[in-house]
Amino acid sequence: MSWSGGCQCGKVRFRVDGELGRPSICHCRMCQKALAGPFGAFVTVKAQDLTWTGDEPSRFQSSNKVRRGFCPGCGTPLTFETDKTIDLTIFAFDRAAEIVPVIQLEPQSMPGWVAHVTELEVLEPPPGYYETITSYQHPDRDA
Question: Which among 4, 10, 77, 134 is most buried, taking Cβ atoms within 10 Å?
Fold first, then answer.
């Protein structure tokens, strides 16, 4: 099986030829800051199965053990890398909805409100709103 993905602007693209590893979400404060959200969603891949088909990501050494890859153009977070593993952000994949997390890490750092997200009121946009938007985002596929 082959999986593709990349950043929002399309400058950094990747392909994974092989099985994906364990999908997870991490609530640790470092992941919250790196992804500007309540958690990071990642899936492990084998380094030999990963090919950067666009530019390679820039990297930030976020700790003595972890580097995080991101697009230097649009800032999209892309990787969580150690000396032994590489994880890609699930929502950087073109078919992200098919990758379902099976484990969570650092749940003690999870904001309490995350457990109630599905209970929040849904605000619907006015009719025709989405038709007025022109997206400059790279499509969820290779060109």
Answer: 77
Nearest-angstrom CA–CA distance, 17 and 14 = 10
Q: Which domains does the chain have, with CATH numbers?
A: 2-111+124-132 (2.170.150.70)
Cα distances (Å, whole numbers) of residue 79 to 6, 117, 127, 139: 11, 26, 37, 20
CB count within 10 Å of CB 77 equals: 23
- Break the chain down into helix, strand, coil percent, rounded to 5: 20, 30, 50
Angle (CA) 118-120-122 rounded to 5° is 100
Q: How many other CB atoms are found less than 10 A from the CB of residue 55?
A: 15
The residues that bridge with 104 in the sheet, in sequence order, are 25
Neighbours of 58 (CB within 10 A): 14
Average pLDDT, the chain: 96
User: Alpha-carbon distance 68 to 30, whole Å?
Assistant: 10
Per-residue model confidence as pLDDT tens digits over 35-85 = 999 999 999 999 999 999 989 999 999 999 999 999 999 999 999 999 999
